Amino acid sequence: MLEEKEGIIFSSRYDGKYGNQSERSISNENLDIGVVNVRFVKPLDTALLDELIESQQVIFTLEDNSLIGGFGSAISEYFDKRVQQTK
Description:
Layout: E1 7-11, H1 17-27, E2 33-37, H2 46-55, E3 58-62, H3 71-86
Parallel strand pairs: 1-2, 1-3
């Protein structure tokens, strides 16, 4: 179970450097943001994503790879499928 936050940063960089830097910068603006350092892009951790959907947190993704068809796109597609299933 994740601690309730105003948002979550998913960082796919292997060392979490940019996610942790972003979290510190955002925290300076008095926003409570968490960081999830993702070791593997595939398969997606759908249990974690489902938990985030239920807690209605804002999700940011940071990645070194492609914007189109990359990690952020995979998360977006998963959420889209989940929303379609609930309609």
